[in-house]
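Chapter summary example.
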Amino acid sequence: MFKLDQYKFKEEYTYYMLQALKVGKKEAFRKDFLNLHPTDQMQFFIELDEARRSRVYAFLSPEEFREIFGELDPFMQKTCIAELDRHYAIEMLNDLPSDDAAFLRSAVR
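The structure predicted for these 109 residues follows.
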């Protein structure tokens, strides 16, 4: 795992991940994305449009996405829940740590 802290490198790395999403290179995307520090995963994810977020959901397991989901702000969490397939969302939320689940419940109300 590494942290993206050099602007030029970050820009290049982001470009390759976006290309992998665009053309459907699931394994290439997963390799690069899952190698990122969780903070960088979250930052990359929140900058995506809905179509690209949908591709991320398809490329990551619910367990992998849960790691990103827990770091998102409540508004973005609600957005994700609305976008996710019901079964994917249930699987992702089932194992959410109890303090995160309680926070999510209060934010959704």
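To summarize the output: The chain has one domain: 7-108.
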